Amino acid sequence: MAEIDPDGLLRLPPPYEGSKVPIPLSDPDLSLDGFETLSVPPLDKEREEEVIARFIQGLKRLLDGRDNWTFLMPLSFTLEYCAGCQACSEACPIYVSSGRCDIYRPTYRTEILRRLVRKYAKPF
Fold it and tell me: Does any domain span residue 10?
């Protein structure tokens, strides 16, 4: 797990820094278009297997020319031709602003996606 030092982060402009507006935490909506963005564990094993199967199905559709014809070529180039040189890291404001925390490195998530594609979708 990544450790982030709050003192090393950039300060937010007003009115965000030091805002006293309470954030409602009761019954939060964790989905965006049917996808959960926070890691909330499934309630049971059956639901977990269903979520995994849907993720793999979505991954395969992402790499299918009929379903993703608009972004398939750039996605394929990214998955196939990234040399892992990390030249893009210093140009990424999110990575630099995080104090150069590895989890925010541009190639970090791409490498995880590349491993999942090789294991489950195998388009190349």
Answer: no
Each residue's pLDDT tens digit, 22-39: 666 666 555 555 555 666
Whether 24 is in a domain gets the answer: no
Inside any domain, residue 36: no
**Global model pTM greater than 0.90:** no
Share of the chain above pLDDT 90, in %: 10
Residues 81-113 as b or e (16 or more Cβ within 10 Å = b): eeeeeeeebeeeeebeebeebeebbbbeeeeeb
Does 12 fall in a domain? Answer: no
Q: Please give the Cα distance from 44 to 88 (Å, whole number).
A: 40
Looking at residue 5, its pLDDT comes to: 83
